[in-house]
Design a protein that fits this description.
Length: 644
């Protein structure tokens, strides 16, 4: 009965929303109101000061400088996020405001990318050539496509087919067997634009490091840390009298070694990943509003083989989701947005499990010359083989211009968030806990921002203080599954409280000749404490592997034919024990990038040289998983159809 009911909703939801919104729109006679860009879900064009929720962006220009790299390297160097990397070729996951990867959602055009079994996404699997821009919505009030998360949401906007023909190819070489090749071709056909892109990457990963078990600090080479990846992306964008639409697919496969920590004997474990993603959406104009309809589907496979295990570990998941959003201008000051989605996740874990999801949300916004207020109310429900969860998720965001003639803004928000357990947390064998409760919490923040814009100069700064509280935090801990047999088992431990500050300062200076200097400084302080039991040694202690301090700076000098980037990332110590008795040392990572552009009559040639870890520092993001020493990468790209 439950399954038939969920599929009826799949069929009827778009029709219901279309009928309701169009009917409401027809009540307004002879009135035409332009729908502002603030209403549109894709907020990548918004500056930090233009909305009630803090949104930081990474432009397509900055992404274009990351030839042959993944989104993991971009976010690590140029965002508020802490990107935790298990070695140079292992899993890379992002965390905002110390909330962890499972409370920091990664979306692509509003589609969730995290695996429903693990709750995470490996950012190294996303080539930068597939991404047009990045917007980071900070805190629980940063709702994108009806979703919210305690730390925030990273919304990747997939590259779209341009209006004119385009061909781009790039290749790269680097130390430790790094090789990369990518290509993109796009061509319009009347009202339809097509695009296809490929990315192929390989790295041997045999870099030298100091053996931590050696008394003489001898240098040895990393073994079994190779990685191969192939990705294909295709897309169609079209227009009609009714509106715009797009259809896209992304297929990827990867094969990597999983070498284990360097304080143990090298192992030959391997992991293979396969996935296919499909998504389509349409945007249609209605009286005084917009209507969006979308569908997405993901199927993934993961195989992990360890030499000490007779049976490989396998993961097979499928996700399908239908969503619809109606945006309606009520008056010159108010707009209203209604969102609904219904979907299903499946896994072969524990004989096959199914999770059904239903999310609805209503958001309103009132905007005047000096202030904006955005209340919202969402309901999220999940059904997983008897483990059901439902959450009512209110939110409120406000922004106020403090002075009529100066761009100084006050911004504040509060929101309730919900995270349901993953399939691994519920059903992993051995150790899964089907009695887990959903994590629920509150997020609140407040801050100031200002802008100064002149003809050849602009300055922008912001500072935000935040606090969040999470109940029923899910943590894996050792447990006995039999006589002298220890396994890991998840449980709800109690309460986690986090507080901190985020701040940024950016400046841009242009010359009359078109050259520019851009500088940006980012700082984040996050104190995330276990507040479960006062009698415990871990009470009020920082959670493991959460840095309190993150500092990043970017200095970029560019002209029409030359560019120089200097990027510095500094990560504070991370505790590796729950009572703060042991930690991994702080580290800094300096990257210097030089690029030279040569414009031809038909396109552009770019040569880029990157010096990574320029200070030759010895560090690891995760203990005993070292990162490579100083090394060089060389990239060459050619773009045909470049618009001078």
């Amino acid at each position: 009965m439950r399954r038939s009911w969920i599929y009826e909703i799949l069929t009827l939801t778009p029709a219901i929303f279309a009928t309701v919104i169009i009917a409401n729109g027809q009540d307004r006679r002879d009135s035409t109101i332009v729908l502002s860009e603030v209403v549109v879900v894709d907020s990548t064009a918004l500056r930090n000061s233009e909305g009630p929720v803090l949104i930081s962006t990474i432009s397509g220009e900055r992404i274009g400088y990351r030839i042959g790299e993944s989104i993991a390297e971009l976010l690590h160097a140029e965002s508020f996020l802490f990107v935790q990397r298990i070695g140079s070729t292992g899993l890379a996951s992002a965390s905002a405001r110390g909330a962890g990867a499972q409370h920091t959602q990664i979306l692509l055009d509003g589609m969730a990318l995290a695996d429903p079994q693990t709750g995470q996404l490996d950012l190294t699997s996303v080539p930068s050539i597939f991404v047009q821009s990045v917007s980071i919505h900070h805190g629980g009030s940063g709702v994108v496509a009806g979703r919210s998360a305690l730390g925030g949401i990273v919304n990747l906007r997939a590259v779209q087919a341009p209006m004119k023909p385009l061909f781009r190819v790039s290749g790269g070489l680097g130390a430790y067997g790094r090789r990369q090749l990518s290509a993109l071709i796009s061509r319009p056909f009347r009202t339809i634009r097509s695009l296809i892109a490929i990315d192929i990457a390989r790295i041997d990963g045999q870099f030298p490091f100091e053996n931590p078990t050696s008394l003489t600090h001898e240098k040895v080479r990393r073994e079994g840390a190779d990685r191969n990846a192939q990705n294909l992306y295709a897309r169609l964008d079209g227009e009609s009298q009714l509106g715009t639409w797009h259809v896209a697919t992304w297929m990827g496969r990867g094969d990597r070694g999983v070498p284990g920590p360097v304080n143990a004997e090298p192992i030959t474990a391997r992991q293979q990943d396969r996935f296919i993603r499909f998504w389509a959406s349409g945007r249609f104009g209605i009286p005084d509003g917009l209507l969006d309809l979308g569908v997405s589907y993901t199927a993934s496979k993961l195989d992990y083989a360890h030499p000490g295990s007779k049976m490989p570990s396998r993961s097979r998941t499928q996700t399908i989701e239908f969503q619809t959003t109606g945006r309606y201008v009520v008056s010159k000051l108010w707009w209203l947005e209604a969102y609904a989605s219904v979907g299903q996740d499946r896994t072969r874990l524990a004989g096959g499990r199914t999770q059904q999801k239903l999310r609805t949300r209503i958001t309103a916004e009132r905007t005047t010359q000096r202030s904006t207020i955005r209340p919202g109310l969402g309901v999220e429900s999940t059904w997983v083989n008897g483990n059901d969860a439902i959450g009512v998720l209110p939110s409120l965001s406000v922004r106020r211009r403090l002075f009529s003639k100066k761009a100084i803004f006050f911004r504040s928000s509060i929101a309730r968030v919900l995270r349901t357990p993953t399939f691994n947390e519920l059903y992993w064998v051995p150790g899964g806990n089907p009695d887990l409760r959903a994590e629920k919490g509150w997020s609140v923040d407040a801050g100031l921002s200002f802008q100064i814009t002149r003809r050849l100069m602009s300055i922008e700064a912001q500072a935000t203080a935040f606090r969040s509280s999470l109940k029923h935090k899910i943590v894996w801990h050792p447990a006995l599954s039999g006589p002298s047999i220890q396994t890991w088992r998840p449980g709800n431990i109690g309460r986690v409280v986090s507080r901190g500050i985020e701040g940024s300062l950016s400046a841009r200076i242009k010359s009359m000749t078109g050259a520019s200097i851009v500088g940006r400084l980012i700082y984040a302080y996050s104190r995330v404490e276990d507040r479960s039991a006062k009698e415990s040694r871990t009470y009020s202690r920082q959670l493991r592997y959460v840095p309190e301090h993150v500092l990043k700076s970017v200095i970029s000098v560019s002209s029409s034919s030359f560019g120089l980037d200097v990027l510095l990332t500094m990560i504070g110590p991370r505790y590796i024990t729950s009572d703060e008795t042991q930690s991994v040392s702080a580290y800094q990572e300096l990257s210097v990038r030089l690029r030279v552009d040569r414009h031809t009559s038909h396109g552009k040639i770019r040569v880029q040289l990157a010096l990574e870890n320029a200070t030759d520092g010895r560090f690891d993001s995760i203990r005993f998983y070292p990162m490579p020493p100083r090394h060089v990468r060389l990239y060459l790209s050619y773009e045909l159809g470049y618009n001078h």
